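Model it.
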Amino acid sequence: MGGGELGGQAGHDQRRRLGAGTPVVCLHTAGADARQYRHLQNDADVLADFRVLAFDLPWHGTSLPPEGWWEEEYLLTSERYVDTVMSFVHALELDRPIVVGCSMAASLVLELARLHGAELGGVIGFSGASTVEGRFQDWPLAPDINSNQVVPSWTYGLMAPHSPTAARKEVWWVYSQGGPGIYRGDTYFYSNGLDLRGHESEIDTETCPVYLYTGEYDYACSSEETEATLARIPGARGGRMPGIGHFPVSENYSLCKQYLLPALQELARSRNAA
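Modeled.
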């Protein structure tokens, strides 16, 4: 996905933005879309100081696939993912935005910090690590499986049992609307397409600060995996979040906000002081 293709979509509904101030780009989870950030985008405490932008990746939500999509197997690669996000940043001429990502996007923000840290004001990841194994599976393509029910039910178990029921059901609903094979193609990146082990020290947190958090109920990317990644990135902050699972921003926003808003505020202060 090049900048031209993404720029051609910019006038459509694939992008949602609210607020003013320091730009924050929000990246959704595998197989889902930007609706996951609706609570953040309607939080007056955030919008007072931040311009919050969220967009649907190609193949997701209201973003159509590129022409000829039926001629290839959808497998999200690290190169395509990085290029898509940076094309979005460049198309909107964002000045050192803060990038927030969850799940596969939390791993992606580490690669963004490594490759494009000088263009960013910092990154915040939820449920990410240097590498995450075991999520890429072929069963969503099986003809005798209704992936629009099984995929959301599989991901439902990643959330904390005491996160608000309505929020957990909303996560399930968003996942039920993914295109055929898209969740599988995204998890290719999450589990097969990115492995930063041995490269964590290449992330300069003086240039691009890093925050990385994972909920205690997350078994796709455990808090121990996140903490091990943090230990290998000098200056990175974050750790384990009690009482929450794999989708903090959408499954329990009020609890997630206790971690997210202070991180945003600190990153904004560092960015604006530079």
